[in-house]
Every structure is written in C-alpha cells, then in structure tokens.
Amino acid sequence: MPSPRYWREIPSRYRLEAAACRGCKRVIYPKRQICPQCGGVEFEATRLARRGRVVTSTVVHVAPTDLQMEAPYAMAVVETEEGARLMVQVADCDPSEVLPGMEVTLEFRLIRKEDHGGILCYGHKAVPVG
Amino acid sequence: MRDVAIISTGMTPFGELWQSGLRDLFVQAAREALMAVGSPSVDAIYVGNMSGGQFVGQEHLGPLMADHLGLAGVPATRVESACASGGVALRCGFLEVAAGASDLVLVAGVEKMNDGADVTNVLASAADQETEVYHGITFPGLYAMIARAHMARYGTTEEDLAAVSVKNHMHGARNPRAQFRSEVTAEQVMTSSMVAEPLRLLHCSPVSDGAAVVLLCPLERAREFTDAPVRIRSSGLATAPMALADRADPTFLDAVSLAAGRAYKSGGVTPSDIQVAEVHDCFSIAELCALEALCFTERGSAGELTRAGETALGGRIPVNTSGGLKSKGHPVGATGVAQAIEIVEQLRGEAGERQVPDATVGLAQNMGGSGASSVVHIFERV
Amino acid sequence: MAGIVGYGAFIPRNRVTAEEIAKQWGKDPAAIRRGLLLEEKSVPGLDEDTITISVAAGRAALERAGVDPQRVGALYIGSESHPYAVKPSGTVVAEALGIGPEVHIADFEFACKAGTEAMFVALGLVESGRVEYAMGIGADTSQGAPNDALEYSASAGGAAFLFGGQHVLADVVETYSYTSDTPDFWRREGQFYPRHGGRFTGEPAYFRHVTAATRAILDKTRLEPAAFRYAVFHMPNGKFPLAVGKQLGFKREQLEVGWIVSTMGNTYSGSSPTGLAAILDEATADDLILITSFGSGAGSDSFVLRATDLLADRRPRAPTVRSMLGGRRRYLTYGEYAKYREKIILNA
User: Fold this and answer.
1) Are C344 and C338 in contact (CB under 8 A)?
2) Would the pLDDT of B2 be above 70?
3) CA torsion angle B51 B55 B57 B60 (round to 10)
4) Alpha-helix runs per DSSP H in chain C
5) Which of B68, C121, C213, C339 has its CA 20 to 30 A from that of C129?
C-alpha cells in the first residue's frame, strides 16, 4: 500500500471517523462527499462507537499473499450500533464461531505489513464480546 | 434507433494458453470472425478487457488491437467493467450501430491471466480497495458471504451449490472450446479443497486465457454477410453499490435485476420468453442468485430449480449450455462476448451436442465484481 | 500534586503454557514451573504489536480519566519491541487515540524499564506545568529465543498511565531512579533474539538496582515497607520479584495483587506497569503503593503512590487486569505459538 494513500485513510481507519447525513440521518462509513441514500451533501462529523453485530461472514482459506500466515481467518460484514456497515476480519476466536447476529467490538489491530520492508498498515478488527 | 445484428463470431479455446500472448489471442479470434464474412472494412472496434495493465503490463488496448489487425486508423475503445467488460463492450458496439454512428463494428473481449501475475490481487481490484480488499477479503470470500447469507435466509444447501457445478461441467464436456471437458460428480465438488467457506475449489471458475469476438452491423444489411444473422433485441446495464457491506440485501443481485428489467422492457419480452440463457457463474452461488434476479424463478428458489434439473439441457430453461464460466473458463474480459457467441450458436442451430431444440430467444447476463455492475442482452433469431 | 488521572492495560488473549514449551524441548515441565514459578504466558496474534496494545491500554486510560484526548500534551511509549526501527510508535497511537497534532511524542527504550521511564517523563512534564496532561505507556511483544530460559517468560501486554494535576486517582508522592552501565542483557541491531549473561542477570543486575532504588525511595520518603498496602517489582520470572520483595522487607500479602507474572509472563516494558494497573484495580483511598521497575543495561525507576477516593469511582470504566488474564483466551500448541511469534524461517 503506497504511503500517501495509507496516510489519507488514517482518520477513517484509526478513529472510525464517519459522517451523518444532515438530510436523511444515515451514518456513512467511510465518509463520502455525497450521501448514497438521499444525495445530500451536508454532513455532521461523527465516529463509530466500536460495537456491532455480524451480518454475514465467511472463513477465508485461500488468502492473498500478504495474509497467508493468518489463514484460515474469518471475515464479516459487521453492522454497528449507528447502522453503518463495514467489512472486517474477526480476530481472537475460532473462525467457526463466527455466526450472524454475533455481538462484536472493534479493536485496533495490525491489518497488513507491506512486504519487503514496507509500511505497517493498521485498522480495526472485530472481536467477539464476552 | 436501428435494429442491430450479429453477423459473425470468432473465439479461441479457453484455458491455459501458454503459447499465446494477449495480442495473439485477440488477433486469432478477430481473424476468425472477419474471415468468415470476407473481411469487410470495420468502422469501429470495442475491446472489453478487465486488466491488461495488471496482468501483463499492457494498457491502451484499443489502438494495439486495431494495429495488430491491420486496421490502424480505425477508432478503437477499450471498455472496462471488471468481469463485465466483455458484455459492456458488446453494449457499446450495439449502441454505436443502433445510433447510426457506425455500420460495421467489431466487438472483442480478451484476457491473458496466466503470464505470472498475482491473479488473486488483480481480481481483487474489482472489489472495494479501501474498505474490502484492505481488510483481507478475497473475491471468493465476497461470494462466500453471499452464499452464507443466501443459505441462512432461504435454506439453500451446499448440495445446491454443487449441483450448479455438476450441471455446468456436464454441458462443458460437450463444448470443444471449453477449458474443462470432463464431467464432475457432486461428491468431487463437495470434497474439493476449501477456498472460502462454504465455497470449495470446484464451486469456483478457473483462471483462463482467451478471446472472443463478434461482428455487428445494422440488421437491414446483415444478409450481405450471412444467411443466419442473430438480432440483438435489447441491452440493459446497471450498477449497484460497490462494497458488499453497502448493499441492503447481500443475497440479492440488484444490478442484475435492474439490468434485466431494462433489457426485458426495451426488448418487449418477459422472463418466460427466454428459452436459453448464459449467466455469470463466476462461483456457483452467482448462478443461483442470477437466476433469481433474472426472474427465472422466485427469490430463494434457485437451488430447488437447479436440483430439479430445470436449468440443464432438456429442462425448462437451459442455463450455461456452454459450460458456464466454471467449465468453459473465465478469461475475465472475454466472458461477456463468449456468452453472446453461445447464444448466437444456439439460435442459429449450430450448438451441436449442446443444442436447445428450436431456441429462438436467448439471454446473456454478464457481471462485474461482487455484483456492482451487470449487463444483460436479449437475442433473437431472425 | 500531580498523579495518575487515568490508567488502563491490555493483555492479548492467546496463551501458551510453560508445559507446552517444556515438552517441545524435552525439559521436565514440573521442574520448569517450580524453578521459574511460571504457568503460562500471553502470546500476541500476528495482528498485535506494541502499537495495538498501547492503543487498547491508552483507550482504557482515557476512559477512566474522562479527559478529552485533545488536552493530552505529550505521549511517550517505552518498549523493546517497537514495530519500526525508525518511525515512532507514539505517532500511530496518538492518531488512534485522537491525540494531537499539538503534542510532544517520543519513543523510549531501556530494556524492561522503558515503560516506567515514559511514566517518569510524562509526570515530570505535568509537574513542570509545561503540559496539562501527559501519557506514559509501557508495552512489549518481546521475543524469547527457542530453547532458552527466556522463552518461558517473554510475553506480550502493556499498561498506560495518564498524568495530570486534577481529579487524580493516585498521587505520585515520590520518584527515584538508579542507573549504571551493567551489560546483563542486550540485543544488537539486526539480531532477532536478545542475549543475556545467565546468572549475571541476578545479583549484579536485577537485585542490585531494584534494591538500591527501593531503599533510596524509602529513605527519601521516610517510609517503612510496612506502611505500604501494595508493592510491585519488575517480574522477569515468578521468583525474582518475590525474592527481592522479601529481601527488602515486604510481606507476601503486599506483593500478591501486583504479582501477575505466573499467568501473564514477563511483558518487559509492560511488566511492573501492568502489575501497577492490577494494584490500581483493587486499591482503596489512601493506600500506599510502591513500584520499582528494572531494565537491563541497567537501571530501576521507583515510584511511591497514594490512591485517592476517586479511584473506586473511575475503575469500572474499563476492564481490570485480572479480567483480561482470566477472561476468554485461547491456548496454543507450540507450532501455533512459533507461527504467531514468527519464529519460522521464510524466504527473505
């Protein structure tokens, strides 16, 4: 991942900065310039609260080169308390435990290392509650 | 808008074609199509290709193709919509002829995937880079999530997924150009290695090289070139949110439904008029979801339809008689055009052992990424 | 008086037992457990490192403090396993916590005492009035070489302390640092595993510096060991902190709450800081607390703290150390442990 592109994403990846549309109130993550629901262009800055539930999931066995040592790993679409949805890995559990409806929190983790001594790329992963 | 016909086709076999580079592939397919009708002068070229740049470092395919066909000077455009590139190129050619801007248009689809690129990474560029791929999802992973959601909501089973692969291999065994010409059993499918749960290796289309070409001209001139023109009755294209997380219902392919609706409406046909169809089975689950979005069956019932044999040759609506992406192969940019060629051969009565008797109306559905784009064409025998 | 206004800790959820490691190398598990007083240790996942641990601990500290991160004027992280050789851990952690850009950041290194160093400097900046709030973090994911004694103890985890002048949860009564050049344990640039001087790490290193710093701070504060409710020392294994505590005149009951090494392992720069967090999880108003760290190379930082009545109030805002030690966790085989710790050689 080239550094400038990584750096621009820091607010959304590190702090889960999102945007609440002034028109239809939908919380959009990551932020956008145009609301996908109502086309509005006015937003309130907000942050996701780091709690949500699994909507659907899978366990990736054949992984991209960067993530081969972590395979098999669970991935899920998680819907947060605010109603935003994001795609994240699910960590700290047996991948087979990940089921729709499972409650999760979002924790700060190392997502990938650029190979050949490149930068470390951070973000959030889902961790089952309890 | 004028009526548009396909007057000629050309296609390489699909597979691991070590002897052929990207340009060899499209020249081979284009020559076949051109020579079949006396190599007429071409007014425009459209070439569908997902990523010549990432697979072999080659962009700017429009002029490259014109040049290598001995047609330097002819306007040529490369069209990209991930795995729907071929179908969208066909639509562009169709619209150009329909609008009267050109008479003879060559539409090609081509992909060279086996020259050592990191295929997983290249294909993943069809998904959302910032929000999906960054976090470690793969292409099969996205469809696997769709499969799980479909299974949870509708009770679709792993056997239903396997039935799609078994059927498509049965068809592909009869296709001389298919990458895999052997049948597979449900057991072989269900014991093949796991890729992303629940999708196994034999639920997934392969990595392929290949090219497919059709020649278009206004219907009123078609018989100058062929006794068996096939009319493109209509075309519909649609988009859907890029990221799976942004779709309201991950089990439903909105882009396919919208595109199909547009094609049915402007073509004045209903789903029950379709007698043969090529759909985008990049993974078995994609075929099931496509059948539902195309309204061939109710939401949630595609598994049942497949199990009952209704989508096999001899069934109510034969689907993927070519072998589909699974068995015929899936050189990404070429697929959309190859699907059109199968329907053309069906409607011309030239499909040999794969023939659907008396087929007069057919449909091809091509899709990009995890369903963010889809294009549907309806064809008829004239 | 300046002191701790917020604290937090994080311990990864994977574990490997001393028994599992002993079996790998054909050692007698019972002898290892008896000799080192170690049962199991925490293991970081492939997606965890000093930065991720610091973020989790830092988030908890800010929760307990109830302070707007924009008011934190300095952030220091001490570790011997900073993820980059050149590029600070502190900047990533600050951005994740919402601290900055008006903030001073530096990474600290001094073997196992880098955490208390970060705390020492953070405290000093607040006391000087130069910043309103400052955070000091000790966190590590250090490596133990295969088939070496340190493999049983080297673990992962850390604690974060936010220092400020008001709404203090524990006052800092006094500090003392004792340092000399003692080459007991080191790692050269480019080496994957550290090396150590065997028994030389005991008397001339750990015991000399811990006892010197502790005696000096007791002297300075004119306090006897019996005055303290709790004491925690750096925990390179289960035995050393109990032995030095006894030598200094502390009783087992005073050491118990902070002595978490037998199930956590030695989290290096996070060791005594996490022990301190475990103490703050239980301390009541006016309890006196002693912490003395030890970093090879070598030195010790000592702090005397007094809990306030605000502590009980703020404590429930984040997980306790014992809830993380005893909570949901996964036990790894040696093979999984080796994979997670990247001990398996791959092509460059």
Assistant:
1) yes
2) yes
3) -30
4) 18-24, 29-36, 50-65, 89-97, 114-128, 208-221, 239-248, 252-256, 261-264, 271-280, 310-314, 321-326, 334-340
5) C213
pLDDT digits (tens, 9 = 90+) for B268-288: 999 999 999 999 999 999 999
From the list B30, B34, B61, B64, the residue with the least C-alpha distance to B48 is B61
Q: Kindly determine whether residue C47 and residue A10, on different chains, have CB atoms separated by under 8 Å.
A: no
Tell me the three-class secondary structure of chain A, residue by residue.
Answer: CCHHHHHHCHHHHHHCEEEEECCCCCEECCCCCCCCCCCCCCEEEEECCCEEEEEEEEEECCCCHHHHHHCCEEEEEEEECCCCEEEEEECCCCHHHCCCCCEEEEEEEEEEECCCCCCEEEEEEEEECC
- In sign, the C-alpha dihedral spanning B351, B356, B357, B362 is negative
Chain C residue closest to A71 (CA)?
C46
| Partner residue facing B152 (CB), from A30, A36, A100 | A100
Taking the alpha carbons at both ends of chain C, their separation in whole angstroms is 52
Arithmetic mean of pLDDT, B87-112: 98
| A69: chain C residues, CB-CB within 8 Å | 46, 339
Q: Cβ distance C162 to C275 under 8 Å?
A: no
Structure-token pair, residue B323: 């072998």
Q: What is the mean pLDDT of chain B?
A: 97
What pLDDT digit, counting tens, does each position of A3-17 carry? 888 999 999 999 999
Query: What is the reported pLDDT for C344?
Result: 87
Q: How far out from the chain centre does Cα B178 lie?
A: 14
Residues 6+ apart with CB under 8 A from B66: B45, B72, B73, B74, B76
pLDDT of residue B202: 97
Q: In the predicted model, what is the mean pLDDT of residues C289-301? A: 97
Supply the ipTM of this predicted assembly: 0.93
A21 band by pLDDT with thresholds 50, 70 and 90: very high
pLDDT of residue B33 exceeding 80? yes
A33-86 pLDDT, tens digit per residue, is: 999 999 999 999 999 999 999 999 999 999 988 898 899 999 999 999 999 999
pLDDT > 90: percent of chain C: 92
On the question of a cis peptide bond just before residue C101, with omega within 30 degrees of 0, the verdict is yes
Q: Within an 8 Å CB–CB cutoff, is residue A61 touching chain B? A: yes
Q: Is A1 a residue whose pLDDT tops 80?
A: no
Place of tokens 């059948």: B291
Query: Is A15 in CB contact (< 8 Å) with chain C?
Result: yes
Which residue in A58, A65, A87 is closest to B132 by CB distance?
A87
Residue C347 has pLDDT above 80, yes or no: no
A85 Cβ under 8 Å from any chain B Cβ? yes
Q: Verify whether the Cβ–Cβ distance B145 to A85 is below 8 Å.
A: no
Of the listed ranges B102-111, B346-355, C187-196, the least confidently predicted one is C187-196
A110 touches chain C (CB under 8 A): yes
Q: Which residues contact C159 (CB under 8 A, 6 or more apart)?
A: C7, C8, C9, C10, C57, C115, C137, C138, C139, C270, C273, C274, C276, C277, C321
Per-residue pLDDT at A2: 79
Question: Within 13 A of B322's CA, how many CA atoms are on the CB side?
Answer: 32
Look at residue C346 in the predicted model and tell me its pLDDT: 79
Q: Do A15 and C96 touch (CB under 8 A)?
A: yes
Q: HEC string of B278-343?
A: ECCCCEHHHHHHHHHHCCCCCCCCHHHHHHCCCCCCCCCCCECCCCHHHHHCCCHHHHHHHHHHHH
Measured CA to CA, the distance from residue C246 to residue C243 in angstroms comes to 5
Q: What is the pLDDT of residue C348?
A: 63
Q: Does residue A71 belong to the interface with chain C, where contact is any CB pair within 8 Å? A: no
- Cα–Cα dist B12/B27, whole Å: 10
